[in-house]
Amino acid sequence: MNDFSTLVGGIAGDGINEAGLTVARLFSRLGYHIYMYYDYPSLIRGGHNFSLVRASRQKIAAHMDQIDVLIALNQETIEKHTSRLKDNSFVIYDADKVKLDETKHKGCGLAITQILKEADAPAVMKNTCIIGGYCKVVDIDWSVLEDVLKKHMPKMLELNLQVARQGYDQAAELCHIDRRADHADSHLDEQDQKPLPIINGNLAISLGLIKAGLGAYVAYPMTPSSGVLDFMARYARDFGLKVIHPESEIAVMLMAQGFAYAGVKAAVGTSGGGFCLMTEGISLAGMAEMPVVVVMAQRTGPSTGLPTYTAQGDLHFVLNAGQGEFPRFIVAPGDAEEAYYWAGVALNLAWKYQVPSFILTDKIVSESQYSFDIDLAGDLTSELKELAEQAPLLWDGQGEYKRYRCTETGVSPLAFPPQKGQVIKTDSYTHDEGGITSEDTQITRETSDKRERKGQFLAADLERYETVKVFGDEKSKTALLCWGSNKGVCMEAALKLGLRVIHVLVLSPFPERKLKSVLQGVERLLAVECNSTGQLAKLAGFYGIEIQDRILKYDGRPFSVEDLLRELGRVLA
Amino acid sequence: MNPKDLATTAKNTWCPGCGNFSIMSAMRMVLAELDSEGFPVENVVLVSGIGCHAKIVDYMNVNSFYSIHGRTLPAASAIKIANPDLQVICFSGDGDSLAEGLDHLIFAAKRNIDLTLILHDNRVYGLTTGQYTPTSPQGFKGKSTPGGAIEHPMNPLELMLVCGASYIARGYTHGIQQLQTLFKEAILHKGFSFVDVLQVCVSYNNLYESYNKWTYTVQGNDAANFEEAQKIIRSWNYDRSEVPIPLGKFYEIEASRFDQAFSQRRPNLSERDGKILALLENFI
Questions:
Q1: A241: helix, strand or coil
Q2: Are B94 and B125 in contact (CB under 8 A)?
Q3: What is the domain partition of chain B in residue ranges?
Q4: Strand B245-252 relative to strand B215-217: parallel, antiparallel, unpaired?
Q5: Closest B-chain CA to A148
Q6: Between chains, do A258 and B75 touch, taking CB under 8 Å as contact?
Q7: Residues 109-168 (B) with a CB less than 8 A from some CB of A
Q8: What CATH number belongs to B3-257?
Q9: Which residue in A497, B1, B78, B213 has the most C-beta neighbors within 10 A?
Q10: Kindly report the CA angle at B106 between B101 and B107, in degrees rounded to 5?
Q11: pLDDT, tens only, B241-271
Q12: Do you find a cis peptide bond into A417, omega within 30 degrees of 0?
């Protein structure tokens, strides 16, 4: 079996995310790659939550609608998800709470309430109990589950093991999963040799930023970006980070620039609504040439929209946020490994060019779980130096310091206070080289040219990076054009249909030359996006790239592999 | 150091007679004095918002961050947290800190972060040529309130007292000696220092006559006593009522500070790499 999907469903508060992660960890130990989509409404208790865990022998970054096993902690899960079952799929459920028509679906009911009662275990342990049963049903060795529980549920471990074992013993084996042992005589990929960590994009971004030398993280909580704040705050001491959750996103953006002024590399995180408040500060960063990294995790808008669901609706907002004209770097990673690598690059480029730098994600990249191979995160053999902490262009200490000294690249050397006998002045007004306000026509023009030059040198620098990636059949005359989280689903669909995929990672400065070169030979270009207007298609159109079709999804949910295949079937018919 | 060394060549564009000149002179003298007393001027960072007050940073040859309207305090807070050795002084206007950026002011006081904020309180928007501000009296006829301001003013000192500021004082731009005393105390005070300066705007709200008549300096008050400070602060509410206006230091206490809570030690690159790899093990 090369591909196996499990859906765990219940109410908010049942620990559905954690249950999904436990399933993911089991498969990871069997040598599978993992992708997990977590679907939850915007509330704390009640409501329907589900984790969709897909395990594959291939690297994956998308979910399938169809599932092999449904783990139902409540009746609603049965009602909502039995349509996903295939002929040979089956349901494992809490028989004390859930009714299943076993004439229609194969199933295995466990007397969970009774097991917990007999063990005198709290209700939250029903997860552990049902996953015990799940392991038996899909033929995962007890020792594998024991290993996962020991590592991830150290609290009340004995009791957890006891109820899991009860579930395991009560269940009947219904199918057989390939384990590593079964492949002993067949060839396995190198990466299958060790179980990989399973992390979401928010964690990957956090690690990438820390790796590249982050000193401070400032954020006001907002789904789906809050995971970065939670992580940074939790590990602040370990990594020597200054982490602040201030009064508003306005304060967030200004604090980041206070840090930059004093020489501390800072990042901030938010979603669309919070980003609206940051825009005056973004413009300040443009004028004052302050390096700042913004993790901008998109969700469904406009306004409050669907707080816990996805969208790619803010590309043009981020491209244009802030009054006036100034260069910016925008990257949209497509999975956890890209998120890690490009977060580091984003921080380094922000400081190299003294510009605002954006890591544009969405709910999918930020909160989905991926098998994460740090050795594959970007071509580290050749680009390791880009990720290692880079010193920005620093003042050489000679003569009089001028914060905005005019240079060929537009980048002025940095110095941070205190500097004996020197002053370091930064200014939101148009200013002269020394950072003093000016309304002079020549200075106004020259400082504008200076900022523009930084953008040009940034664009030239990016030629060294893989700003556009090509997957699938590179000779196909039909290509899918995508960005961000649609990378995974497009790669799979293209593989099945023999299409080319063009994944645009860097959106500003726009990699026009590279994109046009990989488009050679393409006769039909289809934009695949999670918005209602085709925002990348519009952007590409601005550079004279014609898009023949748009496949757009804007219901807050990501494309499943089946969704995209169906749409492509319709469009390409 | 001579206070004159702290001037820049930027052309001064304040109106003749503007109260901002007194604030700048007093601050230059205090910074020069502190420099000779072992508080080097290169360790000082001035942060301003936007408004007539804010031009002060262009006129002072000192490190500065000329921020945007209402946003002095968040930038200043991060500078202090980034490097606790820096002495961070904010200049802000009443429109700047009490209207556009009021939330930051409340939080700076709540955190008792070690910053000094000098409020250029001219009780009018000068740079936008004459609108009412949060400290303009009820009935103030400004360009946006031609029939007179409907609201009563707020008392920023009362607000600062309940929010947790640990040094609170008021000065007047006709009393430069007192401004120097208050500025120096405020800068040396460890915690959030708030100095309200009744700064006369000669063009749009010339209150010299009224202030000269009604201001007096408090004497012998117990600045560590909250109730006493509150009583002094409440004795004038910024409305037109003809009552004495107290000046001087009203409140000063020692309290724990937000800026003390941050670790200054960062692991080096190889330590970080090791920690990242170790941390990833937890997610297997």
A1: coil
A2: no
A3: 3-257
A4: parallel
A5: B284
A6: yes
A7: none
A8: 3.40.50.970
A9: B78
A10: 100
A11: 789 999 999 999 999 999 999 977 888 888 8
A12: no
Distance (Å) from the alpha carbon of A106 to chain B's nearest alpha carbon: 32
Q: Is the pTM of this model over 0.90?
A: yes
Q: Give the one of A238, A247, A417 whose C-beta lies nearest to B103's C-beta.
A: A247
Query: Backbone dihedral region of B139: left (phi > 0), alpha (psi from -120 to 50 degrees) or beta?
Result: left
CATH number for the domain that contains residue A253: 3.40.50.970
| Minimum CA–CA partner of B105 in chain A | A247
C-alpha distances in angstroms, A442 versus A406, A408, A445, A446, B59? 13, 17, 5, 6, 22
Domain that holds residue A231: 198-387
B272/A210 CB distance under 8 A: yes
Rounded-to-integer distance, Cα A73 and Cα A102, Å? 16
Residues A389, B269: C-beta atoms closer than 8 Å? yes
Residue A332 in any domain: the answer is yes
3-state secondary structure chain B: CCHHHHECCCCCCCCCCCCHHHHHHHHHHHHHHHHHCCCCHHHEEEEECCCHHHHHHCCECCEEEECCCCCHHHHHHHHHHHCCCCEEEEEEEHHHHHHHCHHHHHHHHHHCCCCEEEEEECCCECCCCCECCCCCCCCCCECCECCCCCCCCCCHHHHHHHHCCCEEEEEECCCHHHHHHHHHHHHHCCCCEEEEEECCECCCECCHHHHHHHEEECCCCCCCCHHHHHHHHHCCCCCCCCCCEEEEEEEECCCCCHHHHCCCCCCCHHHHHHHHHHHHHCCC
Asked if A259 and B63 come within 8 Å (Cβ–Cβ), the reply is no
Is it the case that residue A172 has pLDDT exceeding 90?
no
Q: Is B79 on the interface with A (CB under 8 A)?
A: yes
Chain B residue with the nearest C-alpha to that of A216: B82
Residues A238 and A254 in one domain: yes
Contact between A245 and A220 under an 8 Å Cβ cutoff? The reply is: yes
A233 and A367 together in one domain? yes
Instruction: Measure the CA–CA gap between A411 and B91, rounded to whole angstroms.
Output: 29
Residues A223 and A320 in one domain: yes
Residues A317-342 pLDDT 10s: 999 999 999 999 999 999 999 999 99
pLDDT band at A351 (very low <50, low <70, confident <90, very high): very high
Give yes or no for residue B204 having a pLDDT over 60: yes
Cα distances (angstroms) measured from residue A549 to each of A361, A473, A486, A534, B115: 24, 19, 16, 10, 57
Asked which of A367, A387, A407 is the last residue of a domain, the reply is A387
Residue A474, domain CATH: 3.40.50.920
